[in-house]
Design brief:
By secondary structure, the chain is an alpha/beta fold. It has 15 helices and 26 strands.
Length: about 475
């Protein structure tokens, strides 16, 4: 048995290839949309990708299952559980709990583990060439290192009332089944630290069931109600694009070969698009944007590995997105990252030099010391754009709290007659927020460019 691990740092998303060297066959589990790494890995080990499987309908990225199956001719194994609302709408082999099949000498058994989603499957793997008991489990978004999958997405992202408590209780029962298995089993999860699919994911790529039984908080509960309350408390904000991903992955995403490549555009086109209120994301670094930006563009520097998640907070999937590249040769990687969350309508891009050719403005910045000296100014307001849990842990006294992704929907709560200082934990999100507010017509906006260590020392804070 061969096992290959693939990890998308932008989305903290893991996928896997399980191969049988003797038979020359391979199964890929939860593939990303960019399938080149799987093709290259299979070729390197003289394997044919004959099967593709998913643990569930993903909410945080576009699945590459149909892309990989179309390219290789592999059989596509997808859950047939959870009820009609969660059936995949494209051709596949339906999988039920207890179903088994072979990848050469490797046996795969699907187990229904609802909770994160109603249709969720866990895949139990046995290398029959040398063992008669399983070696491990691909748990998808059921169990992570140090955490379990969040059960609230169907309610918070899709809008199904009451779904989060139902999911939490289902997850409790799925865990009771898992607890009954042997401690030696390896656990290969679908996400790592930084994913919004849980609230406290560990950074290790894998774990064992025995270790999780000892140290994962979810395993410490024997009471269903107590577990439900614990699990639902403190879940992070749901990126707005998650609802779109559910729809795309259930219906089946477009194949990449069907998408139109973006064209390089010029200054006149940029000015016209902004006059038409088109969304243009400036992906250059923070300092470059602050020193000179084209009014109407939104700063989302690619310096953060999660930059596409932030774009996903405010992109309109019914309209095109245009980007200003941070450097000339960055297009391919950026386009792949955007398409990973279903932003397929990217008609054009601009090279970074277009900014110098266009009328620009600067984005004023302020440090914690300067802000401390101005805190008595009644005409100034701090706008904290961090997540709820961050704000609850510590925040600047008197700050208005609106998470970054909620700004477009809460403009009526943000005064236009005061100087606004956008603030986060590092300066990254605060700059995105400041550029968004400027796009919406707020003129007197500064961004706090200090990290939390500095502003927490120099400014009055409370819990």
């Amino acid at each position: 048995m061969l096992l290959k691990y693939f990890y998308d740092t932008h989305l903290a998303q893991a996928s896997y290839m399980v191969g049988c060297a003797r038979k020359g066959e391979a199964l890929v589990i939860d593939p990303a949309r960019e399938i080149t790494p799987y093709l290259q890995a299979a070729q390197a080990d003289n394997l044919r990708i004959t099967q593709v499987a998913e643990t569930h309908i993903h909410a945080d990225f576009v699945s590459g299952s149909s892309e990989l199956a179309a390219h290789t001719g592999a059989h596509l194994y997808l859950s047939a559980l959870g009820g009609p609302d969660w059936y995949y709408k494209f051709e596949h082999m339906p999988v039920h709990s207890g179903d088994q099949w072979q990848v050469g000498n490797v046996r795969v058994e699907a187990i229904h583990t609802p909770g994160h989603t109603p249709e969720h499957l866990t895949f139990m793997i046995t290398d029959t060439a040398g063992a008669d008991r399983p070696i491990g489990l691909f748990t998808g978004d059921f169990v992570f290192v140090g955490d379990v999958g969040r059960p609230d997405l169907l309610e918070t992202a899709v809008g199904i009332s009451g779904a989060k408590e139902v999911g939490a209780r289902a997850l409790f029962h799925s865990l009771q089944w898992l607890k009954s298995l042997s401690d030696y089993l390896q656990i290969w999860p679908g996400h790592g630290a930084g994913s919004a699919c849980g609230k406290a994911l560990g950074a290790l790529p894998s774990t064992t069931l025995g270790y999780e039984k000892l140290f994962n908080p979810a395993f410490q509960f024997d009471d269903e109600t107590a577990f439900t309350h614990w699990l639902l408390e403190g879940q992070p904000e749901v990126p707005r694009y998650f609802a779109q991903m559910k729809c795309v992955n259930k219906a089946g995403p477009a194949l990449l070969r069907e998408l139109t490549a973006p064209k390089q555009l010029d200054r006149d086109t940029l000015e016209r698009l902004l006059a038409e209120d088109a969304l243009v994301s400036d992906l250059r670094d923070q300092d470059a944007f602050a020193q000179a930006y084209v009014p109407g563009t939104v700063s989302v520097p690619t310096s953060s590995q999660k930059f596409t998640t932030y774009i996903g907070w405010f992109v309109d999937y019914q309209k095109p997105l245009y980007v200003i590249l941070p450097e000339e040769d960055a297009l391919a990687e950026i386009l792949s990252a955007l398409r990973a969350i279903g932003i397929d309508d990217v008609p054009g891009y601009f090279l970074p030099g277009v900014v110098a050719q266009t009328t620009t403005a600067c984005l004023p910045q302020i440090n914690a010391g300067e802000l401390a000296a101005r805190m008595a100014d009644n005409g100034l307001m701090v706008l904290d754009v961090r997540g709820r849990s961050e704000y609850d842990e510590k925040h600047i006294v008197g700050a208005l709290h609106i998470p970054l992704g909620d700004i477009p929907q809460r403009l009526n709560d943000i005064p236009r007659d005061r100087t606004l200082v956008t603030q986060c934990s590092s300066g990254y999100r605060s700059q995105i927020a400041a550029s968004l507010l400027r796009r919406y017509g707020y003129e007197d906006v500064l961004t706090l460019n200090d990290d939390e260590e500095n502003w927490a020392q120099l400014l009055p804070t409370e819990n």
